[in-house]
Amino acid sequence: MLELDNRAFTPFSPFWHFDRAALDEVGQATASHRRRVVRQRATRWTGSTVIGHAITGRTTTIGFIQRLAVDPTAEGQGVGSALVVDALRWLRQTGAHEVLVNTQPDNDRARALYLRHGFTEREGGLDILHRVIDDPAGDPVR
């Protein structure tokens, strides 16, 4: 998972590059969290490969997509969307009413992914996107 994470964040500022300790620490930042991976199917000759991962956390009613990475070779295949939808469902089921995620201002793919899933941009220096997930009029998992 760490190798995948490093490949996904290579084009961006060193601020976004994590070592094993930092990646482990991400989940400990909230009262409750879970980790999910997406694997590429194994063939007869190779084992499965992790092509995406997400760490989602929650306080009492606020959720966080704390880390989401997709292997650059798997971009555009729905891996990121599957991880976001999974995170939103889990957060809603566990009592979160809103979700925050931050991303690099120059990561257009990530920003577009979150915007497609109903997040809105907040004002301020760091790109933080926000989404209400308990809106009965809206679909929480687009």
What does this structure look like?
With about 140 residues, the protein is of the alpha+beta class. It is about 30% helix and about 30% strand. The protein is built from four helices and six strands. It has a six-stranded mixed beta sheet with strand order 1-2-3-4-6-5, with helices on both faces. The longest helix has 15 residues, at about 80-95. It is globular, with a radius of gyration of 15 Å.
Q: Could you write a compact summary of the structure shown?
A:
The protein has helices at 2-9, 20-27, 79-93, 108-116; strands spanning 32-40, 49-58, 62-70, 98-103, 120-121, 127-132. It is of the alpha+beta class.
What would CATH call the homologous superfamily? Gcn5-related N-acetyltransferase (GNAT)
- What is the radius of gyration computed over CA atoms, rounded to a whole number of angstroms? 15 Å
> How many strand elements?
6
Q: Report the average pLDDT across residues.
A: 85
Q: Number of helical runs?
A: 4
According to CATH, what is the class? Answer: Alpha Beta
Characterize the main sheet. Answer: 6 strands, mixed
Question: Helix proportion of residues, in percent?
Answer: 25-40%
